[in-house]
Amino acid sequence: MESRLGRNCRMITATAVIGGMFVGFNIASMSAIIATAQYKCRGPDPWLQGVIMAAMPGGAWLSAILSAWLLDGYGPRQEIQYITGFWISGCMFVTFSVNVPMLIVGRFINGISVGMCSAQLPDYVSGISPPSVRGRLVSMYQWAVPCGMATMFFICLGCSFIEHQAAFRLPWGLQLIPALLLLMCLYVLPENPRWLAQMDRWQEVREVLTLIHGRGDFCAPIVKRETDALIEAARLDKVNADVPWSELIVPNMINRTHIGLFTQIWSQLTGMNVMTYYATYVFAMAGLDDLTYSGAQFIIYAVMSVPALIWQDRMERRPTMLIGASLMCFFMSLNAGLFAIYSRPTTSSDHLDTGAISMVVKGPPARGIIASTYLFVASYASTWGPASWTYPPGLYPLRVRGKAVALSTSAKWFSDFALACFTPVAFATITWKTYVLFAVFCASMFIHCFFLFPETANKSSEEVAAIFEDNGPGSIKYIGTPAWKTRSDRHATLQREINVVDPETNPSPTTRSNTLN
């Protein structure tokens, strides 16, 4: 007979994947559509198209800031149900929009749901997952985001052959599917036990832990261990409930806060959002109007995310980010050079309907731009893509982690919002120099990361705190240990974990002797 644990894990996995697809659908919902004749005949200029595109990250930025207050008092499961309600209403606005303001409002509402979902769903999945597969299931959510982007792009590609407004309205309407599937999954899943513990609903805590960890056995040792851990976590949450936001900028914390903020800011300033939102413009400038070439980059994004998610705990964070920054700088510089040397301004004979496609390259240089673009996407997906989410939480002590991560996430969405507005106008006005700007950003992030981003992989909270102490030998005031001197010692970390004895599962010789006596 199939175990209840196996069924639970499959349902939790489905929730993580559907939630990630939910976010990815929205991010890519305009990427292919802006290149279709049915949409372009409405004629938004580069500035207006930037506003339409930026409405989604703008809503996500607002919800990232206000999420702690918007649904205060509701459990994470119920919050996510309300989030799907926002999503459904936003999809209806977008699908049946009769003018640009209505489209912008719909995308803004969808952005609110994306911001809240990206903040709440990974934490919910983590809270209801068995400890042995917790990291894997949360990683499934992260991986499903680029998969959702790829799926939506090819849905838009298929619908582009429809000779009607349905060419773009149908893909927007199909975004309802992951919302409805997520509602169905949440209907059968329990509330997050950590939230129940914060509410002192301990009977429900034990029932949920028995369901998801104990295979129906109320007396299972793992149920007791997880309950004890939640009791301690709830105690710490109450102790740290009154921590003010100002603690993030005190002298011994401000360096950590700035690193977390810039991890998310730099991840956006790499130029990856140019590929995410405006890939069709980039490939049209390289002489390829076939949307299949643009869609291939989303497949590369999804595939190249897998190695980083599997081996992220074995790889050091700092070298990964430095290598990624240098590779992306090189490929952006290569694109800038190819466009600068071989491009020509567009003319009326090119039959292009937007000023954002301001230059055209043909022949071998165009193929070089396409290859460089694909390699750029692969570099981001395997380095800064996952690192931008895994690196910031490890910087902070528990008492300020929630506020600090929320602040860094809001910085990500604000940067995303600004770039979505800026990119079409930049392509229209400064043309190939747009790539130079992103290359400079990538070079700056390499320098910043080298001098100020310490290694945090395989380190406990105490070890990370020691890195930022500025009263030791060789430390720098307000910074701590120089970043380039920090290292990860995974072997020592594994040895410490192996030497920790759990008397209920691996009793020590002394324990066994006492038991026998």
UniProtKB/TrEMBL annotation:
<feature type="transmembrane region" description="Helical">
    <location>
        <begin position="140"/>
        <end position="162"/>
    </location>
</feature>
<dbReference type="GO" id="GO:0016020">
    <property type="term" value="C:membrane"/>
</dbReference>
<feature type="transmembrane region" description="Helical">
    <location>
        <begin position="322"/>
        <end position="342"/>
    </location>
</feature>
<keyword id="KW-0472">Membrane</keyword>
<feature type="transmembrane region" description="Helical">
    <location>
        <begin position="436"/>
        <end position="453"/>
    </location>
</feature>
<keyword id="KW-0812">Transmembrane</keyword>
<dbReference type="InterPro" id="IPR003663">
    <property type="entry name" value="Sugar/inositol_transpt"/>
</dbReference>
<feature type="domain" description="Major facilitator superfamily (MFS) profile">
    <location>
        <begin position="12"/>
        <end position="457"/>
    </location>
</feature>
<keyword id="KW-1133">Transmembrane helix</keyword>
<keyword id="KW-0813">Transport</keyword>
<dbReference type="InterPro" id="IPR020846">
    <property type="entry name" value="MFS_dom"/>
</dbReference>
<dbReference type="InterPro" id="IPR005828">
    <property type="entry name" value="MFS_sugar_transport-like"/>
</dbReference>
<feature type="transmembrane region" description="Helical">
    <location>
        <begin position="169"/>
        <end position="189"/>
    </location>
</feature>
<feature type="transmembrane region" description="Helical">
    <location>
        <begin position="83"/>
        <end position="104"/>
    </location>
</feature>
<dbReference type="InterPro" id="IPR050360">
    <property type="entry name" value="MFS_Sugar_Transporters"/>
</dbReference>
<dbReference type="InterPro" id="IPR036259">
    <property type="entry name" value="MFS_trans_sf"/>
</dbReference>
<feature type="transmembrane region" description="Helical">
    <location>
        <begin position="291"/>
        <end position="310"/>
    </location>
</feature>
<dbReference type="Pfam" id="PF00083">
    <property type="entry name" value="Sugar_tr"/>
</dbReference>
<comment type="similarity">
    <text>Belongs to the major facilitator superfamily. Sugar transporter (TC 2.A.1.1) family.</text>
</comment>
<dbReference type="GO" id="GO:0005351">
    <property type="term" value="F:carbohydrate:proton symporter activity"/>
</dbReference>
<protein>
    <recommendedName>
        <fullName>Major facilitator superfamily (MFS) profile domain-containing protein</fullName>
    </recommendedName>
</protein>
<feature type="transmembrane region" description="Helical">
    <location>
        <begin position="369"/>
        <end position="392"/>
    </location>
</feature>
<feature type="transmembrane region" description="Helical">
    <location>
        <begin position="47"/>
        <end position="71"/>
    </location>
</feature>
<feature type="transmembrane region" description="Helical">
    <location>
        <begin position="12"/>
        <end position="35"/>
    </location>
</feature>
